Amino acid sequence: MRVRVLYFGVLKESLGRESEQVELAAGARVADLMTRYGSADWMRSIAVAVNREYARMEDVLREGDEVALLPPVSGGVSNYLPAEDVALQTKCGGSSASVGMMRDGVWMGAR
User: Fold this and answer.
1) I want to staple 1 with a disulfide (CB 3.0 to 4.6 A). Which of 51, 63, 101, 106 is the partner?
2) Beta-bridge partner residues of 89
3) Cα–Cα nearest to 27, from 76, 68, 65, 73
C-alpha cells in the first residue's frame, strides 16, 4: 500500500523535500511508518496527522492516506527581552504577548 508523507518545518528543510510516496505493508500502523526514520532525536517530539486529523502510533493506515509529520513550533526570539519591550494583551479570559516590529514599522511594546 502507498501513503503520501508530508514534511513540515525543520523536517522539510533537513530532508530537502516537502513530501514523498512511501510503500508500506497492508495493515501498517503509524508506528510502522515511523520506524522508517530510525531513532532520530526529533521523533520524540513529532506530532502525526493522518488525513488532517491527529493520529496515534497504533492507528492503522490505509491506501492513499496522507500522513503529515509535524515538528514542534517555536517562536522567533531566543534571548532575554526587557519587560518594557513586551506588550501584554488580556481579553476573553486569555493572555498573549507581542514583541517586535509589526506592519508599517509600528513597534509592539512599551518603548
Assistant:
1) 63
2) 96
3) 65
- The answer to whether 97 and 87 are in contact (CB under 8 A) is yes
What pTM did the predictor assign?
0.64
| pLDDT classification of 65: cutoffs 50, 70, 90 | very high
Task: State residue 49 phi and psi, 5-degree precision.
Answer: -125, 140
Residue 48 Cα distances to 42, 93, 111, angstroms: 12, 30, 41
Residues linked to residue 97 through DSSP beta bridges, in sequence order = 88
The CA distance from 9 to 68, in Å, is 11
Grid coordinates 530510525 are at which residue?
A: 38
CA atoms of 67 and 49, how far apart (whole Å): 6
Contact 11, 69 (CB under 8 A): yes
Q: What is the mean pLDDT of residues 10-29?
A: 93
